[in-house]
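Hi P.,

Sorry for the delay on this. The queue was packed all week, but I finally got your sequence through. Input first:
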Amino acid sequence: MQRSTVHLVRHGEVHNPDGVLYGRLPEFHLSDLGRQMAVQMARHFQERRDEGADIVHLVASPLDRAQETARPLAETLGLSVSTDERIIEAENRFEGMSGIKSRLRQPRNWPLLVNPLRPSWGEPYRRQVERMMAGVHDARRLALELSADEGRGRPAEVILVSHQLPIWVTRLAAEHRRLWHDPRQRECTLTSVTSLDFDGETIRRVRYAEPCADLLPEAANVPGA
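Then the structure:
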């Protein structure tokens, strides 16, 4: 059975001094720290390759912060960046707003909060999982085609640079957990790596790593970013 690994990488810190929930808005670029994170994360994958990992494909969300996070990976690993709309950030009705906590206390926004299980303020969790997994499987299959290591026992590996919420709900689905959750409990920090190990079409293991853990104390923390 063919083995493969899909690494879901969250983008680096974004320059966002006004604390906007930027969602899918354009022109939100990595901060200086975010660029440092992207370079450090690229070194992490180069070390994996030096240890024998067969990393053959790189995909990113079309949003600026994901493309900019992918750039050092492309340069370090000698890969081109493919863009996939299916791994974009989740839709959110609070997009473009700042001071989200105070917004939640305003009565005019309460109708958006009636069903946190769906969630009612944005793209349904199940829809996010469906589009993410479609992108994951297409990238995984292409990685198997591109792999120079077929028959030698090492999995073909692909990197997808995406966003916190889509990555987190994809992990929940992969681990057969419920999709609704407390956003404060997500284990998906900036430039974290959530790895899905496949045997054929089946996920056999989920792994998580934080290659930039030493940089996280310096980072801003904007909900939903």
